[in-house]
Amino acid sequence: METIICSDVRDMGQRAAADGANRIRHAIKEQGRANIVVATGASQFEVLASLVAAPDLDWTKVVGFHLDEYVGLPLAHPASFRGYLKARFVDRVPLKEFHYINGETDPQAECRRVSDLIRQRPIDVAFVGIGENGHLAFNDPPADFTTEVPYMVVELDDACRRQQSGEGWFPTVDDVPRQAISMSVRQIMKSQAIVCSVPDRRKAEAVRGALQGPVTPKVPASILKEHGCVTVYLDPFAASLLER
Fold it and tell me: What strand order describes the sheet that includes 62-66?
């Protein structure tokens, strides 16, 4: 794992996007195509803004997958991750395909549908973040480190739901759904490369636990230390508790 402390959140986004774009270009050069996973949330604003502006990238050879989505949340809701990705990424580049998670249909059937799709598309680059509770995607602690199911229905813990409300996606904690469809930890770890971006002081404790603590389901993102190709991009605030 490589950790890069950036000068600010914009620098974080630009450097993470440049890294991911280079990996996408390499996959296209070697294979004629690239498969990627795209995350959402406040941590990805600058990453996606820079990624869609990346030069000399043939998006028509790229297939994208959605990392996670709330169960039961309409597409028109301001917190919909489908809506987020459509506006900030999918509508801005000419992708070959993008596979959304539909949280408005039967969740177990939707898990099976997207799981079947991703099994056919080994992932070259996964863009992810780390939650305030250390979660990876919506795998809240204690996370399941063993299941091989690509997508599953998960229960959101109180810390995760407070984060979603605190970031302004929902009026109150009670408005945050209690379930989501999430890519599993093992599926994320199957990605050829992982680009992880984490801004903000409120995530500093989770970053310290993930990067400098033991690998444990209690800090789900700590599993990233066991992957052979992970780069973590931090702004100074997210890095503020790290032992240098």
Answer: 2-5, 230-234, 193-198, 125-128, 34-38, 62-66, 97-99
- Can you give the pLDDT of all 244 residues of the chain as single tens digits? 999 999 999 999 999 999 999 999 999 999 999 999 999 988 899 999 999 999 999 999 999 999 999 999 999 999 999 999 999 999 999 999 999 999 999 999 999 999 999 999 999 999 999 999 999 999 999 999 999 999 999 999 999 999 899 888 899 999 999 999 999 999 999 999 999 999 999 999 999 999 999 999 999 999 999 999 999 999 999 999 999 7
What values do phi and psi take at 75, rounded to 5?
-55, -35
d(CA 167, CA 151): 25
Beta bridge partners of residue 37, listed in sequence order: 65, 126
Number of domains in the chain: 1
DSSP letter string over 131-200?
-TT--BTTBPSSP-SS---SEEEEEPPHHHHHHHHHTTSSSSGGGS-SEEEEE-HHHHHTSSEEEEEE-S
Sign of torsion, CA 116 117 120 124?
negative
Residue 171 domain-assigned?
yes
- First-to-last alpha carbon distance for the chain, in angstroms, is 15
Position 243 in a domain: no
The domain in which residue 115 lies consists of 2-212
**Residue 134, by phi and psi: left (phi above 0), alpha (psi -120 to 50) or beta?**
left
Beta bridge partners of 140: none
CATH number at residue 96: 3.40.50.1360
